[in-house]
Amino acid sequence: MSIRLEEMYKKDIRENLKKELGLKNIMQVPYIKKIVVNIGVKDAVSDSKSLNLAKEVIDQVTGQSSVKTKAKKSIAGFKLREGMPIGVMVTLRKKKMYEFLDRLINLALPRTRDFQGVTTKFDGHGNYNLGIVDWMIFPEVDYEKVEISRGVNVTIETSTSKDEEARALLKSLNMPFQKN
């Protein structure tokens, strides 16, 4: 599946984007640098099994081994100490990145209940953050193993610093944006 989206970009989309954006050189055309999938597990403070389960699920969804993230500061109100593991993240590049993006756009997002499209807001630097409320939209998640539904943050980093160019790139990759 990854080959499908990557080859579409290299054969058709890149040339169309060059014309659409009025760029002179093919090397100026924006592309996706990396995708970071991140999940915070607040239960990890009291129960380390929940963090291990989240790591297993993210590994299955992304097809790549993830790392546990640690707290940078101690917060007494949350019983959190500096250095405690509280989340899981994975950085995807190249083939795994395209494979994940293909599954996200064509399989996972359409499975979202009452799906109206994703927001068109970018961060001002050409990067896109997508918050997924329930990780159950991914077909790889085993419903018997998972007792708690968790949210996932997906950050798509592009090579451009202009939001309009990044939006055109994701739109050409069939990202289902909301219709205004």
Oligomer: single chain
User: How many H/I helices?
Assistant: 4
Total beta strand runs: 5
- Please indicate the percent range of residues in DSSP E strands (runs of 2 or more): 15-25%
Average predicted local confidence, pLDDT:
80
Low-confidence runs = none
CATH domain fold name of the domain at 2-43 and 90-172: 50s Ribosomal Protein L5, Chain: A
Radius of gyration from the CA trace?
18 Å
Q: What is the spatial order of strands in the main beta sheet?
A: 2-3-1-5-4
CATH-defined superfamily of the domain at 2-43 and 90-172: Ribosomal protein L5
Largest sheet: 5 strands, antiparallel
Terminal residue distance: 30 Å
Helix content: 25-40%
Structural class: alpha+beta
| Shape category | elongated
CATH class of the domain at 2-43 and 90-172: Alpha Beta
In CATH, the architecture of the domain at 2-43 and 90-172 is: 2-Layer Sandwich
Question: SSE order, as H and E?
Answer: HEHEEHEEH
Q: Which properties best describe this structure?
A:
180 residues, alpha+beta, 50s Ribosomal Protein L5, Chain: A, 4 helices
What features would you describe in this structure?
The protein is an alpha+beta fold and 180 residues long. The mean pLDDT is 80. The chain has a domain at 2-43 and 90-172: Ribosomal protein L5 (50s Ribosomal Protein L5, Chain: A), CATH 3.30.1440.10. The two termini are 30 Å apart. Helix content is 33%, strand content 18%. The chain has 4 helices and 5 strands. The relative contact order is 0.20.
